[in-house]
Design goal:
Elements (H helix, E strand, L loop, with lengths): L1 H8 L19 H6 L2 E5 L4 E2 L3 H15 L3 E7 L1 E2 L13 E4 L2 H9 L5 E2 L7 H4 L11 E6 L15 E2 L7 H8 L4 E5 L1 H10 L3 E3 L6 H9 L12 H10 L1 H13 L5 H7 L2
Parallel strand pairs: 1-3, 2-4, 3-5, 5-6, 7-8, 7-9, 9-10
Length: 264
């Protein structure tokens, strides 16, 4: 959101008149009716027809029906059950990896694949590293991820996405030898830091699809007994993660110019 807010603030003449918080069932109806456009941050939300996904897509559909411009950005899109044209005629649709793009096209979307907005370079030099006692750093896991407590018993410092600002985590991982994570933004933090990492799947296809997009042989562990050998592989092959940094530098995040063009 820090990147999206900055992008919105940089669009000439744009005024945000209302906000809807993820997880809330209430809506500022007056702001919704008055607005010329609706922007939805689809980060991690639009999958498996959950209540949150269906609420946001209902807002999207209603805004389209009312003739408003609709921008769905930074999105994950997976396993939706609903109208086949739900994503048609959007002013802007950006997704974070190719599987979401393919699924969006099935529902009328014309997606642009961009990096997660967490990778916005405008913020990444602002981090303050935490001191580390170990070369190995243990990240967090989603409660509904594939493996429960995947890194239990492995020695190392702990650093999950809720422990610090994202840019501080990136700065900290620049000092680390290896990061273990089952969080999508943990993968991004390590990738941006050039830190070797291994991952296990979260609650959607976001981690696997991002890594597949890069074309690099980065280990994704589907079973507990794969973790030790994956750690050894990552330590032996740091150059892969340098290539990953290069891949990230070659891609774009959502910009103010993209939003401004969509609103013209």
């Amino acid at each position: 959101m820090r990147s999206l807010n900055a992008a919105l603030a940089a669009v000439p003449g744009l005024q945000v008149i209302g906000r809807h918080t993820v997880g809330s069932e209430s809506l500022d109806e007056a702001a919704f009716l008055e607005a010329d456009a609706l922007l939805i941050n689809g980060e991690g939300t639009l999958h498996h027809s959950t209540a949150r996904a269906m609420l946001l897509l209902a807002m999207l559909d209603e805004a389209k029906r009312m003739g408003k411009r609709v921008l769905l950005v930074n999105a994950l899109f997976q396993q939706y059950e609903g109208p086949e044209d739900i994503l048609a005629n959007l002013a802007l649709l950006t997704v974070r990896e190719p599987r979401s793009a393919a699924f969006a096209r099935r529902f009328g979307g014309r997606p642009l694949v961009l990096l997660d907005s967490a990778a916005d370079p405008a913020f990444l030099g602002l981090g303050t590293p935490r001191p580390l006692r170990h070369g190995t750093v243990i990240g967090g896991a989603h409660a509904n991820g594939l493996l429960k407590s995947p890194f239990a018993g492995i020695a190392g410092d702990t650093l999950a996405m809720t422990d610090a600002r994202f840019e501080d985590i990136v700065a900290t991982l620049r000092q680390a030898e290896l990061y273990l994570t089952a969080q999508h933004h943990g993968v991004y933090a390590a990738a941006l830091a050039g830190c070797p990492f291994i991952a296990t799947p979260s609650n959607s296809h976001k981690i696997e699809s991002f890594i597949n997009w890069t074309g690099l042989p980065i280990p994704i562990c589907l079973r507990q007994d794969e973790i030790e050998s994956a750690m050894a592989f990552a330590r032996r092959n740091p150059s892969i993660y340098v290539e990953l940094q290069d891949f990230l530098r070659s891609q774009s995040v959502l910009t103010a110019a993209m939003i401004a063009e969509a609103l013209r």
